[in-house]
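User: Could you walk me through two proteins back to back? I'd like the raw sequence and the structure tokens for each, with a short line separating them so I can tell where one ends and the next begins.

Assistant: Of course. Protein one, sequence then structure:
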Amino acid sequence: MPRLSATLDVDVPFFDVDAMDIVWHGHYVKYFELARCALLERIDYNYPQMKASGIEWPVVDLRIRYPRPARFNQRLQVRATLTDWESRLRIAYEVVDAESGARLTRGHTVQVPVDMASGKRLPHCPDALLTRLENVT
């Protein structure tokens, strides 16, 4: 299966910038989450479907690099790409300036499958996700 991704536009709101008029570093996690939800929607396995399948997917690792700052009212494109799904979900993110295409931020998250009933981590990707990934064109 080719890498699955989703891209969305975000206009930086005033309340996301700090005293230096740049996006406060913690808000990039919110932008990543918006893109992650768009990606999960593409395979019909967003948080409600995860919960219905009895599997929760806590984030166990988050990494971000900030080569350039984003600023108030700047239009960003945030792309989330599924890069690993065998025993975890690893999603890579890239934030670029929508006008120039210049990369501003990149990072990734790792989520692991946990059975909600037992609280135990699963050693492999659950069928609820694999079935959906197989049906993606």
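----
Protein two, same layout:
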Amino acid sequence: MDLGIRGKRALVCGASKGLGRGCAEALAGEGVHVTIVARTAEALEATAEDIRRRHGATVTAVACDITTPEGRALALAACPQPDIVVTNAGGPPPGDFRNWTRDDWIAAVDANMLTPIELIKATVDGMMDRGFGRIVNITSSSVKAPIDILGLSNGARSGLTGFVAGLARKTVARGVTINNLLPGQFDTDRLKKTMGAAATSSGKPLDEVMDARRKQIPAQRFGTAEEFGAVCAFLCSMQAGYMTGQNVLLDGGNYPGTY
């Protein structure tokens, strides 16, 4: 299927590895000019070169901290009029809420709620003026089913979800959709970190904890960044123009609810 976005410009955050990279790869494969952002310059440039080599795409790498005003300014200077924005920032650490300070909460809200909102604020009006825009926020399955040790993430990402629910209904008439992608358990460094905390808490080996978790998923496996990126690319497509304000769950069937 031709997604109709060849030649569009995309800003993809947290794209040096994991799910962000999966989204950048999928968009580049559709002929999108991609600007990728992450904190570590060496890893980011290696990713950019690999995507260029594999897809023949135009890829610009901007090493910055997207959670800061300075970082967002650098990213938007490199991609000043994006047609597509994929927001993504590293999730806050797992733990017990009794140990979290106000500063911990502020950092989580800043990275996982306010940063996406600031990126939307900086780009959505230009998208509406041009009559096309796609904003995809990478959030978490914890928005649907909270995870007890990820309370910081549960709270911050749910706040973003509520904000998007209102705004997405205002922008769609002018060709701009805003949707959230909710990953379940994907084979990423983030999963290993979360499982590492669970292993430490239980006193069990990491491999044993991960295998037990994998077997709980109806698909009997963890997801891949490639299939996550493919769904992101579809949400950015011309065909998805009637889809906005949605929380798209990718979890191998793990969420047990009907709705």
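The mean pLDDT is 94.

Let me know if you want the two compared in more detail.
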